[in-house]
Design a protein that fits this description.
Length: 399
């Protein structure tokens, strides 16, 4: 499963200059409201939208170029993504690949100013070289499974200035490395889970993956029940341990061909509908469904999962996220989470926690918790990360 090692962002709203290096399987971003957490997550959504549609449409949905570029800044909006196509296991890592994208504006219209992919074939030595290099819609690409610096460079010309080169070339079998990046970005999952959406009654039919809002939750339950009954049973057993008294959950077809979720509490004979279930129960069930997807996405981005959940469930949820990210359930999906709950971050290691604040210029700054002086000593004396956050050691605290 591919994973991101580092990301560098320039001129994207409050992220005027942000560098995240040595990213972990699970990365939690902590900070007060307005510190840039949602903006950071929107970077992943923006890149996915650029690939799915084009740069112009991705910017228009966010207020156009002048609204997205950091206020008071000049130059392009740019992203540098360093990733590997393999697993977190260092013994089986593939060579790192760097993807760079710069977007600028000309005559009031956005365009792709520069886009490249580069790597080095040796383990430690040798200068990185580009096997895709496009500027202003023209450039070159080296094809093949393992493009070498000495291989033939083929000319590339992009029809429209606002279309990514990796969108077109990534469809071709001649460019497997480009295609791998395209599939990686297309597979990113940004959760906008809404409990009320999960309570809707969709048309009958299976759905293999949970939608971003959760509105197809009954369809996914039906799919698991038909295709992966043992996995569904495992999920139900786990949630029954998390939610006291919850005995079972299943989807049921109505007479008009729709699906409803039924919940059965141990003290009662009759099951009840999802609309009578608490937000926390629905949310915990949906997260367990998501984390146990038989074909998981390569990247999960989840904002403030603590909303609606009892504080005692947050440590459990953090551990579930970490287990999934480390591949305990066969997933190995990298997980990005935003939070401002001291209970959630109590379960984290310092290297998994990133602190976000705004500097005096109004731009976001990010620092990993293990890089802050005194954290290791505090924790060796029994303090938890949530305690340090609650007491304001990581900036403004949760208020």
């Amino acid at each position: 499963m591919p994973f991101i090692e580092a990301i560098e962002i320039h001129n994207y709203r409050t992220l005027q200059h942000v560098v995240l290096s040595d990213l972990q399987p699970i990365n939690v971003f902590l900070g007060p409201n307005g510190s840039g957490k949602s903006t950071l997550f929107d970077v992943f959504g923006f890149l996915a939208d650029c690939l799915q549609t084009n740069v112009r449409k991705a910017l228009e949905s966010r207020g156009r170029f002048h609204e997205v570029r950091s206020r008071g800044s000049t130059g392009p909006i740019s992203f540098k993504l360093k990733y590997r196509e393999s697993t977190f296991d260092k013994r089986r890592k593939s060579n790192p690949i760097t993807y760079y994208l710069a977007i600028d504006e000309r005559d009031g219209k956005p365009y792709v100013a520069e886009e490249y992919l580069e790597w080095r074939r040796g383990r430690q030595y040798g200068k990185p070289y580009r096997f895709l290099d496009v500027k202003n819609g023209e450039g070159m690409v080296i094809s093949g499974e393992m493009p070498e610096e000495k291989d033939e460079r083929r000319p590339v010309r992009i029809d429209s200035p606002d279309i990514l080169a990796i969108k077109g070339l990534g469809q071709l079998a001649d460019h497997p490395r480009v295609a791998s990046l395209r599939r990686f970005i297309e597979g990113w999952y940004l959760s906008y889970f809404i409990p009320d959406q999960a309570r809707t009654i969709p048309q009958s039919g299976i759905a293999e993956h949970l939608s971003r809002t959760g509105d197809n939750l009954p369809n996914v339950v039906q799919f698991l029940d038909e295709e992966h009954p043992n996995l569904l049973q495992n999920i139900l057993e786990r949630i029954s341990r998390r939610i006291p008294g919850l005995e079972s959950i299943w989807s049921e077809r109505t007479v008009d061909g729709r699906l409803v979720l039924r919940f059965k509490d141990a003290p009662f004979q009759e099951p009840f509908l999802a609309r009578h279930v608490s937000d926390g129960t629905i949310k915990m069930f949906a997260y367990l469904i998501l984390l146990n997807d038989p074909s998981p996405p390569p990247l999960l981005c989840i904002e403030e999962p603590e909303n609606g959940l009892h504080p005692k469930l947050l440590t459990i949820l953090a551990e579930e996220f970490r287990a999934h990210a480390m591949g305990a359930s066969g997933g190995g999906t990298q997980v990005f989470v935003s939070s401002h709950s001291p209970f959630f971050i109590d379960a984290l290691h310092p290297k998994e926690l990133w602190i976000m604040e705004r500097n005096s210029n109004g731009y976001a700054v990010v620092e990993r918790a293990d890089k802050k002086s005194g954290v290791a000593q505090f924790m060796s004396e029994g303090a938890k990360l949530g305690d340090l956050w609650y007491e304001g050691y990581f900036g403004g605290g949760p208020f």
